[in-house]
Amino acid sequence: MKKWIIFSIIIIAIIILWQFISIYQTAMSPVKDQIEKGVAVAQKGAELQTVEDVAAYNGTDSYVIVQGTDSEKEELVVWVKESKEIVHTMKMNDGIPKEEVLNYLQTDREPKEIISISLAMEKNTPLWEIKYKDINDQYNLYYVKFENGEYFQRIIF
């Protein structure tokens, strides 16, 4: 009797796990498709030879942001809009480095916890998006311009 109950519980747990995995894969497939198409557009349009990092950004509009190198081994960033068009391409050297953004944030804002720093795009302006918690445990989105590090926008919630 005990073996039958244990066996039933294991079968039910497997079915529940299988359903969770299935739902997750179904929910994530449009994002995965968007990223794959964005990478293909970036590789073709900006002639990227290698892709080093890819991120999806969903702000006012949705973008796939692809970082990679071209045939001359220059590091590029390509912002691809959801309409599958390249809206901006820049050399990484033409923007401020992630470390500089991090240093500025730590001295100016004194975050309690930095969650992430990633590239973004708003109003056709390439940005760094910094997600962090402040000393009041408020979640902050802090945007600075990729080209020069100027303040762009801050959202607190």
Computed Rg: 21 Å
Largest sheet: 4 strands, antiparallel
Indicate the proportion of strand residues.
35-45%
Strands side by side in the biggest sheet = 1-2-3-4
Helix amount: 25-40%
H/E element sequence: HEEEEHEEEE
Write down the overall geometry: extended
Number of helices: 2
Mean pLDDT: 89
Give the SSE map:
Layout lengths: L1 H44 L4 E9 L3 E8 L5 E7 L4 E6 L6 H11 L4 E10 L2 E9 L5 E7 L5 E6 L1
Antiparallel strand pairs: 1-2, 2-3, 3-4, 5-6, 6-7, 7-8
Concise structural overview:
The protein has 157 residues and is α+β, with helices and mostly antiparallel strands. The protein has helices at 2-45, 98-108, and strands spanning 50-58, 62-69, 75-81, 86-91, 113-122, 125-133, 139-145, 151-156.
